[in-house]
Structure to design on (232 residues):
């Protein structure tokens, strides 16, 4: 059985539509979606965004379960302009499967192999991205993979970390991070976002373009995950 984790349903929606015999259930207090890709049994978990909720959910998800592989996936922000929106990044510092053995499989898609950094907050400053890149040597950031990798190590589950780029220093967020996502509620507060757009009408077009970029990244990510699941 293969486990696939996303932070949020916005990241997984296209992949879930491709699952056959899809069912939802609850185990150890966390919601799980189960289905198949061809003859592969898949379990999908939404970890939530950030350390606290991710650690809770991934710990419960892996408790007393045996998986052949866990694919930690979703969106990430680039720290440099070498990565573009829609690019795929395989985090070599978190992935524990032998990537050399999978080289021919991975080369089927234009995947960048680089280091991923897990951070505690969304970063909407290009200067801050550049600073973090210099200090860490990472190519991109997310908010969950470190905690997923820790849980996988504790439970002896092989990990493949794959992310799709949705924003870069040149193509940053269309609005302040706190407007785009409410960490406490684990969702976008659309009332707050609407008020922001009313006060900043020019942001509407930026939001539309961001939505198009996210859809492009989600499509590339979904195609790659399905390819990996079928061939690993």
């Amino acid at each position: 059985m293969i486990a696939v984790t996303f932070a949020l349903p916005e990241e997984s929606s296209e992949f879930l539509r491709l699952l056959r015999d899809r069912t939802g259930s609850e185990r150890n207090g966390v919601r799980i979606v189960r289905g198949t890709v061809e003859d592969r049994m898949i379990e999908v978990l939404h970890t939530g965004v950030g350390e606290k909720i991710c650690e809770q959910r991934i710990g419960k998800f892996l408790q007393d379960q045996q998986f052949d592989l866990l694919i930690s996936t979703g969106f990430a922000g680039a720290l440099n302009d070498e990565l573009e929106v829609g690019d795929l990044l395989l985090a070599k510092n978190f992935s524990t499967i032998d990537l050399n053995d999978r080289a021919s499989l991975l080369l089927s898609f234009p995947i960048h192999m680089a280091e991923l950094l897990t951070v505690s907050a969304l970063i909407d400053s290009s200067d801050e991205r550049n600073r973090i890149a210099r200090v860490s040597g990472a190519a991109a950031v997310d908010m969950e993979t470190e905690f997923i990798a820790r849980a996988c190590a504790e439970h002896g589950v092989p990990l493949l970390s794959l992310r799709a780029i949705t924003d870069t220093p040149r193509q940053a967020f269309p609005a302040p991070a706190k407007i785009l996502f409410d960490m406490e509620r684990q969702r976008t507060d659309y009332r707050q976002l609407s008020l922001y757009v009313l006060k900043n009408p020019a942001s509407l077009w930026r939001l539309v373009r961001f939505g198009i970029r996210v859809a492009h990244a989600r499509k590339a990510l979904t195609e790659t995950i399905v390819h990996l699941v079928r061939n690993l």
Remarks:
- The helical segments are 9-18, 51-62, 103-106, 126-136, 145-155, 177-180, 190-199, 203-231.
- The chain has a mean pLDDT of 91.
